[in-house]
Amino acid sequence: MREGIAMAKDVDVLTETVIRRPVREVSAYAADPTNAPEWYVNIASVEWETPPPVAVGSRMAFVARFLGRRLAYTYEVTELVPGERLVMRTAQGPFPMETTYTWQALDDGATRMTLRNRGRPSGFAAVAGPVMAAAMRRANQQDLARLRSLLEQG
């Protein structure tokens, strides 16, 4: 390690919310990448590279803006348990990342949803890791609040 430059650390951001809608509705909406630009603050567009619907092996190209930069990346679905869990990964770019959604039915008919982003940034992203983690946490909180608002209105 060169003096004055920190080694890259993993970024791991976990956010959750309770949405007053049944788990079936919340998971169906949130797991459909076509809906992502409606509830993700930073996602500008999503294009399917494989035919919908979402399944293990599905690939979608995302375009986002984060910390003032345009990011283009492709997610691949690596795990899907409908109504319970969705895991997507991207390997390219300066910040290979895994995104996990989980849904849990609550006794009152509501749903607890968690959104977890984790990865190991490299290059400029590695130096900005702590700033990125804080920005991701804020964005994820906004995203889940927007999702809750959209679904509870319906």
Concise summary:
This protein is α+β, with helices and mostly antiparallel strands.
Helix content: 25-40%
CATH homologous superfamily heading: START domain
Could you give the count of β-strands? 7
The residue ranges in which pLDDT falls below 50 over 5 or more consecutive positions are 1-8
Q: What is the total number of structural domains?
A: 1
Using the alpha-carbon principal axes, give the shape: globular
CATH class: Alpha Beta
CATH topology descriptor: Alpha-D-Glucose-1,6-Bisphosphate, Chain A, domain 4
Radius of gyration over alpha carbons? Answer: 16 Å
Percentage beta strand: 35-45%
Q: What does the average pLDDT come to? A: 88
What is the correct CATH architecture? 2-Layer Sandwich
**Could you give the order of strands across the largest sheet?**
1-7-6-5-4-3-2
